[in-house]
């Protein structure tokens, strides 16, 4: 990223000579613990070194002007500080507007308008949380421009609320949390029931985290995601008639097996089973990582994919084809879909020496099966949302 060129772009787009401050917020990859966050379970994501950058200045009036280099053709999106409303047509701009809306609703002293130019390299629609990265880039920018002094942890909740209540995607806390709290070379074990977390070093000696993008856009994700969430909530409510629990994440596999028949709908029973087992898998996987047992970590990743495919049913033919192709390759410890599903990426642990062969073989097999040409990226665990000085 060429900062100087971006600043010039900012000045050209907004026809100003003010020098913007520069902020960045990363996308994330979740290593294991999928669809567990809103079920009060554990997740294990790391922030990526792909970021959304926000170049921002305060204005003297109440105008908001937003521009994204990814959507040049849409031009500047304008809004008024006192009339922030969701607009389906605006698409990407709803994420930063949503963050502003939450901040205003919480009565943070944002007294003036602002100009923000966004750009970045988080692949979009790839299940790597490009939306959370826009939200967090906005949140850190406004936090600094208006000296709001909101802790990062709280910024992630503001991002989540923007997505839940403004955009209408009923997501959990994982993506915004990872983007806000990421740390270089570390993944984060987050207990979404208590919001306690700890960093785990990613010492993957000779092994790469490889992201395999199906390039199948996951556009139907919102409705299906919200449906999975309410299925789990209903299953939980039936279990609660017999068990003193607040979340599915509190259950061990044994307790679940003992009480599962109280969930009357077989589909909902499968969904809940995934939530319970996946949570336990995530905990075990983190333990295996600590023991430097990456073989076992990889096997748990495979089991996670199978559960997401068969019980949670959020994979789809493209993710399944990608994972299956990955599993066959030499030097692969494990592979699974990551993120919400229905398209997006598979994350694979691959021995560095096998990466080139892996890419060639998987690309060939995957494309023959689905017609989509995949992309591959080697993931590095990067820092969380921040100002770049
Ligand atoms: C999306 C949501 C997250 C999480 C994952 C699935 O990325 O935004 O909150 O639920 O799906 O694990």
Structural overview:
The chain is α+β, with helices and mostly antiparallel strands and 389 residues long. The chain has a domain of 205 residues: Ribosomal Protein S5, domain 2 (2-Layer Sandwich). It is built from eleven helices and 13 strands. A six-stranded mixed sheet has the order 5-4-6-3-1-13, with helices on both faces. It has a four-stranded antiparallel sheet with strand order 10-11-9-12. The chain is globular. It starts with a helix and ends with a strand. It binds alpha-D-galactopyranose. The site of alpha-D-galactopyranose (GLA) has 11 residues, from helix 5.
CATH class of one domain: Alpha Beta
Give the termini separation: 14 Å
Q: Which second-level CATH architecture of one domain applies?
A: 2-Layer Sandwich
Largest sheet: 6 strands, mixed
H and E order: HEEEEEHEHHHEEEHHHHHEEHEE
The strands making up the biggest β-sheet line up spatially as 5-4-6-3-1-13
Rounded mean pLDDT is 96
CATH topology of one domain: Ribosomal Protein S5, domain 2
Q: Strand-residue fraction?
A: 15-25%
**Tally of helical segments:** 11
Helix content: 40-55%
What's the helix and strand layout?
Blueprint lengths: L2 H12 L6 E10 L11 E2 L1 E14 L4 E6 L8 E4 L13 H12 L8 E7 L9 H16 L6 H16 L6 H8 L4 E6 L5 E5 L5 E7 L7 H20 L12 H7 L6 H25 L3 H17 L6 H11 L4 E7 L6 E7 L3 H16 L4 E5 L6 E3 L1
Helix pairs in contact: 2-3, 2-4, 3-4, 3-5, 4-5, 6-8, 8-9, 10-11
This protein binds alpha-D-galactopyranose.
